[in-house]
Design a protein that fits this description.
Blueprint lengths: L11 H16 L12 E6 L5 H12 L3 E5 L13 H8 L5 E6 L4 H8 L4 E6 L5 H15 L6 E5 L6 H10 L6 E5 L8 H9 L5 E4 L2 H4 L5 E4 L10 H7 L7 H4 L7 E3 L20 H20 L6
Parallel strand pairs: 1-2, 1-3, 3-4, 5-6, 5-8, 6-7, 8-9
Length: 307
């Protein structure tokens, strides 16, 4: 039995196999429509989510399975003081696989150690968000055809953005990937990403503050929102929240084949006028999230795949 806590739990070869399976699901959905008949996914979401929770639910239902679970800590026995370990022990009696989101870093890992079913980390605080990373990777590979020799711009909240941290850790395993880290001083990537991931792997990167300076050289621009829920100080959030706004004027500086990704939800950081630009891939990205979660569920459940 395997769990997924981090994108690094999958080797590059396993990632490629997963991407191939997700691509086949996209092309031949009917082939997979009943492959999980009789299986149940438990979605244990201790903090709010729209895309991640609904895409997990859509993924399991597209495979013919069923979904049980809760969408907030208040509607679970956590409100009575039940531990994560006890919750997963109980849920293991009802479901075949579990997706857990929790505000505390490491909570899904604690759950996996007590679980008798596969546990998927659906986001733990500011730490990891592996299925978003799988979604991002599938989107990039589908749009660009490869990961090697790309310049990836990451813009906005690089300090608290778990999607950013996970994506960097996954992409450094490919050849000649370069990063441009675009953020204000207060929201720069944590030192462990800079030192233990980028420098340790001899990955070329630069840190800049102006989005306009970075745009002309990028193959992918990954925008993020400034996350109000990660700030202790309302004043700091208000000062930072509109630091970057991507609009049509700025898009004129970008390559014709540069694509914009965003884990969503967006607030003000991408103007709605950009949505009609063919390079805007963030809603397509949300659809890829369903395919990759379908592939992940099948992989962790070790379901026999159709020919």
């Amino acid at each position: 039995m395997r769990h997924l806590m981090s994108p690094l739990d999958l080797s590059v070869e396993e990632l490629d196999t997963l991407m191939d399976l997700a691509g086949d699901i996209e092309k031949h959905p009917d082939k997979y429509a009943h492959i999980c008949d009789g299986k149940r996914l438990a979605t244990l979401f201790y903090e709010p989510s729209t895309r991640t929770r609904l895409s997990f639910e859509a993924a399991m239902m597209n495979l013919g399975g069923q979904v049980i679970g809760f969408s907030s800590a208040d509607s679970s026995s956590a409100s009575k003081g039940e531990s994560v370990a006890d919750t997963i022990r109980v849920v293991s009696c009802y479901a075949d696989i579990c997706a857990m989101r929790h505000p505390k870093e490491g909570a899904p890992l604690v759950a996996s150690m007590a679980s008798s079913i596969p546990v998927i980390n659906a986001g733990d605080g500011g730490h990891q968000h592996p299925t978003q990373t799988l979604t991002d990777l599938l989107t990039i590979r589908s749009l660009k055809g490869h990961f090697d020799n790309l310049t990836i711009g990451l813009c906005g909240d690089l300090k608290f953005g778990r999607t950013v941290h996970s994506l960097i850790e996954a992409l450094v395993r490919y050849n000649n990937v370069k990063f441009t880290l675009i953020s204000p001083e207060e929201l720069r990537v944590p030192s462990y990403i800079r030192e233990d991931v980028l420098k340790k792997n001899h990955v070329e990167f630069q840190e800049v503050e102006r989005l306009e300076d970075a745009l002309p050289d990028l193959d992918i621009l990954y925008m993020t929102r400034v996350q109000k829920e990660r700030f202790f100080n309302e004043e700091d959030y208000v000062r930072m929240k509109d630091f970057y706004i991507l609009d049509k004027q700025k898009m004129e500086l970008a390559k014709d084949d540069m694509y914009i990704l965003h884990p969503l939800p967006r607030v003000n950081e991408i103007a709605t006028e950009v949505d009609s630009d063919p390079r805007a891939a963030y809603f397509k990205q949300a659809q890829y999230g369903v395919y990759v979660r379908m592939a992940l569920i099948l992989t962790l459940l070790e379901v026999k795949l159709p020919c």
